[in-house]
Amino acid sequence: MEIAEIGNIISFKDGLRGIVEKVNENSVIVDLTCMENFEELELEEKTVVNHKRYTIIHSSNE
Asked: Which Pfam families match (predicted)?
């Protein structure tokens, strides 16, 4: 299992995407406002995602 770093873009839960803002022991805090359809989805700006529940789409050090 690869753990995301701050600045990585991750995908989780049926295609939602976000930018990692903080890495915790078992989860990451993600900013969802980078999604084009964020306003339409009526979601909170940030959410917590367990390390087991996401995939890294873009690494901040690439």
From this structure: DUF2187 (PF09953)
pLDDT tens for 20-36 read 999 999 999 999 999 99
User: What residue spans define the domains of the chain?
Assistant: 9-58
Contacts of residue 40, defined as CB under 8 A and 6 or more positions apart, other chains included, come to none
Q: What is the pLDDT of residues 4-16, one digit of tens each?
A: 999 999 999 989 9
Dig out the tokens for 20 from the structure.
């990692």
Return the bridge partners of 50, or none. 27
- 12-32 burial by CB neighbour count: b if 16+ within 10 A, else e? beeebbbbbeeeeeebbbbeb
